[in-house]
Amino acid sequence: MIHFTVLGEPVAQGRPRTGKTRRGKTIVYDPSSSRDYKQYVQLVASQHAPEELLEGSLDLLIKVYRPIPKSFSKKKTAEAEAGVLRPVTKPDNTNYAKGIEDALNGVIYKDDSLIVDLHVSKYYSLKPRIVVEVSEVGK
């Protein structure tokens, strides 16, 4: 099992943007915030990378810890930190997962198509971060 934590406020995968080159050709690209966050995740993941990229069926567990809003009362803050009160606002889980899956391509595993089980959870925390666990199914 590979387990690591990406510190800092989580960034969800943004919608692809389109633009034109000088010659008028249309191109599609990642928003800069998504691209920068993926590079950061790759950097952290590379410190935990296996000697050989994983190639079997994979299980990916992602825990997203978002910052607690300043507008929360002390009671709500305590409930949020205890995991009783959970985020039900955008961005949704799949947007967080997509960015992490893409970032781990070629670093932890050969391709994100190898992921057969995916579990994403959102929480609040005073220390925003993302916790990632990758394991081979059946091992």
How would you sum up this structure, described in words?
It is a single chain. The chain starts with a strand and ends with a strand. It has 3 helices and 6 strands; from the N terminus they run βββαβααββ. With 139 residues, the protein is α+β, with helices and mostly antiparallel strands. The chain is globular. It has helices at 32-46, 74-81, 93-104; strands at 2-7, 17-20, 26-29, 58-67, 115-125, 129-136. The longest helix is centred in the first third of the chain and has 15 residues, at 32-46. A 4-stranded mixed β-sheet has the order 1-6-4-5, with helices on one face. The chain has a two-stranded antiparallel ribbon with strand order 2-3. The mean pLDDT is 94.
Q: Give the strand tally.
A: 6
Q: How much is the radius of gyration in Å?
A: 17 Å
Largest sheet: 4 strands, mixed
> Regions with pLDDT < 50 over 5+ consecutive residues?
none
Residue share in β-strands: 25-35%
Global morphology: globular
Distance between the termini: 9 Å
What helical percentage do the residues reach?
25-40%
The number of distinct helices, counting runs of at least 4 residues, comes to 3
Mean pLDDT: 94
What is this structure's SSE topology?
Layout: E1 2-7, E2 17-20, E3 26-29, H1 32-46, E4 58-67, H2 74-81, H3 93-104, E5 115-125, E6 129-136
Parallel strand pairs: 4-5
Antiparallel strand pairs: 1-6, 2-3, 4-6
Helix pairs in contact: 1-3
